[in-house]
Design brief:
Blueprint (H helix, E strand, L loop, with lengths): L2 E10 L3 H17 L4 E6 L11 H4 L6 E10 L2 H17 L18 E5 L6
Length: 121
């Protein structure tokens, strides 16, 4: 069964085009490492909750939009092999070089995790 890496982050709304450009470049590396697909979703209907919500999870400000993203891998072994290679690639691949592809968001507020699907319809 596939394996999913999920991400939530806050991006300055004014940086939408920069984010799309950044993600398109960086995400192509995950495809090369074996990802089946990479999805980047720009927040469109992200309500404020009474106890918790996506905005609070990433400390989004009024001028930021929440982005929800995921990478689908064919299996956990492919994902683990890709993640083992990622630190070196982040040092050598231009797509992760801030001079060539600057992050248009605060990476310190990005949350992520790996997930094993339990229902797949």
């Amino acid at each position: 069964m596939s394996y999913i890496d999920g991400f939530v982050l806050a991006v300055p709304t004014a940086n939408k085009d920069s984010f799309i450009d950044h993600a398109s470049k960086a995400d192509s590396l995950f495809k090369e490492l074996g990802a089946i697909r990479v999805i980047e979703c720009w927040g469109d209907d992200v309500p404020n909750g009474t106890r918790t919500d996506f905005r609070r999870a990433v400390q989004a400000t009024e001028d930021e939009t929440v982005v929800f993203s995921w990478i689908e891998w064919p299996d956990k072994a492919t994902r683990d092999a890709a993640m083992a290679r990622l630190p070196d690639l982040m040092q050598t691949d231009e797509r992760f070089d801030p001079k060539h592809n600057p992050m248009p968001f605060d990476g310190k507020r990005l949350i992520f995790g790996g997930f094993a699907p339990v229902v797949d319809l």
